[in-house]
Protein: Cytidylate kinase
Organism: Limimonas halophila
Amino acid sequence: MAGGERPIIVAIDGPAAAGKGTLARRVADALGLAYLDTGSLYRAVGLKVLEAGQDPDDADAAVSASKTLTVDDLARPGLRGEGVADAASRVSAIRAVREALLAFQRHFAHSPPNGLRGAVLDGRDIGTVVCPEACAKLFVTATTEERARRRHEELRARGEAPTFEAVLREMEARDARDAARAAAPLRSAEDAHVLDTSNMDVDSALRTALWVVRSRCVLDDTDPDGRDQ
Ligand code: CDP
């Protein structure tokens, strides 16, 4: 990014398995922006705590893990399991953990890697806490049953075999914890565009998201590579 220019920051928040990750990655690709899955930070902290045989509700253990996080921790294969998701949701309710991870997220948004002109961040509190200054905010959601169905399929495709009911219960518990916590609870920013993907395929969600970004952010091109249609 050329010096002095303000980066284009797109915030995508929402509950588990609403389609944020796929959408965020595709918006970033279409517009030539960097992408950060902020859930992977909390998952990496959760995984470290579990591997050390510690309790994810133990604030001292979780804060120490968050302070020793490296970029390599964000790409570890074990991150996507449901046990790790539960641990992530527990460590993420600890205010000091959130504070320890804030600077990394803000730095990524304001100084995107590889000189890119901006970044898309997905998570729970990007539009409300991490980057309230984002030029475009989307709150991506879907019915609990539809989200559980998607997560169940994703887990089965990876060889995990929980029942649909178990996935649904775990997701309801995690959503309730994420929304009820005092530190940066899951909620839509007032200026976010709410996108319900329950009956939408990925391409229609992408079209709507790109329309929101184009109407709210100053992009100096209309369609860099024709990839966003
Ligand atoms: O992929 P999925 O939506 O299931 O979860 P994730 O985005 O990987 O996030 C895992 C957990 O991290 C969530 O349940 C939240 O508790 C927490 N998280 C958070 O608190 N704030 C964020 N910005 C991102 C994730």
